[in-house]
Amino acid sequence: MIVCSCNALSHKDVESAINAGASKPSDIYTARKCRAQCGNCVPGMVCLLKQAIQERKKIQATIATASIAAKPVEQSIYL
Questions:
Q1: Phi/psi zone of residue 21: left (φ > 0), alpha (ψ -120 to 50 degrees), beta?
Q2: Calpha distance 41→57 (Å, rounded)
């Protein structure tokens, strides 16, 4: 899907920039070596950014939960 028709940026281009660390639309433009022209794509980019942030939070929470569950329980053994 094309997110920015002025720069021919697809959702894959935007996702790639986000995965590389972009956290705002200007970061996406910089990563793709272009700039905002008409600005109609900015709301779509913001939406993709919000989705990526939410997914990262879910993954981080899952990893944190898994690492807590994976910790060995210390038990004292009395002989």
A1: left
A2: 25
DSSP for 12-23, written as a single string:
HHHHHHHHTT--
10 Å CB burial of residue 16 (0-12, 13-18, 19+) is: middle
Q: What is the pLDDT of residues 27-63, one digit of tens each?
A: 999 999 999 899 999 999 899 989 988 988 898 888 8
- For the record, the structure tokens of 71 come out as 């910790």
Does residue 56 come out as left (phi exceeding 0), alpha (psi in the -120 to 50 range) or beta? Answer: alpha
- The pTM score is 0.70
Q: Is 53 left (phi over 0), alpha (psi -120 to 50) or beta?
A: alpha
